């Protein structure tokens, strides 16, 4: 019997505007209280206004990336120190879109997770296989390799991260992993974490990939799924609230 508290995180990706953000956040705030912990990871320019709107609420906020560097000549990068100044509780690192479109390696993702944690920000480390890798029977090897880099970089601090299993073929495609497929990978990840830290059974493992109001409850009821990382369904308050309530 697990005592893990569920976590539902919205990943806004590169969506939003002052007006759209205000409407979305008001919709989320109006639906409180949630049983699950709820957070939104927003584009960097909106962190300030989101922090103001959500301060003193039970809804947390975070970023969608975090530099591996502390400071310096890294044009376009945002450091964990800066994110901490804006009250970020979470930073997504290693999202498949960053791995694919920005060439982020396992080692870089691990370094980003370490940088976030050093400033008290919980990294949400994304792992997941492509369709080709799944069809080639490589799912387990791929996610273990991705997670292994983070375990190696963080040592015992690995117990402080959140891991999100996001099969690349399910992200933004409307194609969701079945609850059994997702649970099977989550069990593999938790076993890998258990070999690295005694805190593995307390760690939150999120599922991400076309989670919607109509499939959230069955996914979140799996033994090793502790909530979700939500993309498309995080952009409409009614959908996000329904997903959060399913947790
Ligand atoms: C994501 O981007 O993390 C994600 C899971 O997206 P979607 O829910 O749209 O598949």
TrEMBL record:
It catalyses: D-glyceraldehyde 3-phosphate = dihydroxyacetone phosphate. It comes from the Bacteria. The keyword Cytoplasm applies. Pathway: Carbohydrate metabolism; erythritol degradation; Carbohydrate degradation; glycolysis; D-glyceraldehyde 3-phosphate from glycerone phosphate: step 1/1; Carbohydrate biosynthesis; gluconeogenesis. One of its GO terms (molecular function) is triose-phosphate isomerase activity. CDD domains: TIM (cd00311). It is an enzyme of class 5 (isomerase). The keyword Chaperone does not apply. It is found in: Cytoplasm. Keywords: Cytoplasm, Gluconeogenesis, Glycolysis, Isomerase. GO terms for cellular component: cytosol. One of its GO terms (biological process) is glycolytic process. Belongs to the triosephosphate isomerase family. This is Triosephosphate isomerase. It comes from Sphaerotilus montanus. The lineage of its organism: Bacteria, Pseudomonadati, Pseudomonadota, Betaproteobacteria, Burkholderiales. The gene is tpiA.
